[in-house]
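Subject: complex prediction, re-run

Hi both,

The earlier run crashed halfway through, so I resubmitted it with identical inputs.
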Amino acid sequence: DTEVTQTPKHLVMGMTNKKSLKCEQHMGHRAMYWYKQKAKKPPELMFVYSYEKLSINESVPSRFSPECPNSSLLNLHLHALQPEDSALYLCASSQDQVNTGELFFGEGSRLTVL
Amino acid sequence: DAKTTQPTSMDCAEGRAANLPCNHSTISGNEYVYWYRQIHSQGPQYIIHGLKNNETNEMASLIITEDRKSSTLILPHATLRDTAVYYCIVRVGFQKLVFGTGTRLLVSP
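This time it finished cleanly. Structure:
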């Protein structure tokens, strides 16, 4: 199994809603990542988890709250988002944070904030 | 942090080799060059990476100049399915891959 699975594929939410994006991998990877991608732009790194601990936060607003409950699962909790937060949210994983640049990406969750 | 410069777009005829250049003149000695691609509406896909030597795998070849200031990704026989945005990335710190603007490759029949 070399897949990173993201759910839901599409999400529409209002600015007062609370929702979560989910990411799962069963490759035994110990580093997991959230990227944000606006239309026609490259992916931008948001968070990195290494061995279930947050190791990088790229100054992301607190309305985005990551969580890594175990080594296979990564969540992104969303609260009080703005319309400009509408984007494709990509999850990725790698063997660890140190040795390799081979990130395995999921297909993304496309978020629309109304 | 080393930055990369890539052409905005390139065209290639199906069956021909696609040669995608990348400049990374400020790369430091221990930084790797990575290539990923992103087909429309999909997540990025790893292609290849290298440090100093040329590299080849089942997808592509990576040619890095001796001074490491530039590199070229070669898709030997491009197909329509190779139409994508190709990102040249220099590894920044531990696993902090920063994507540049990339090259939009269009493969035509």
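Chain A has a mean pLDDT of 92.

- K.
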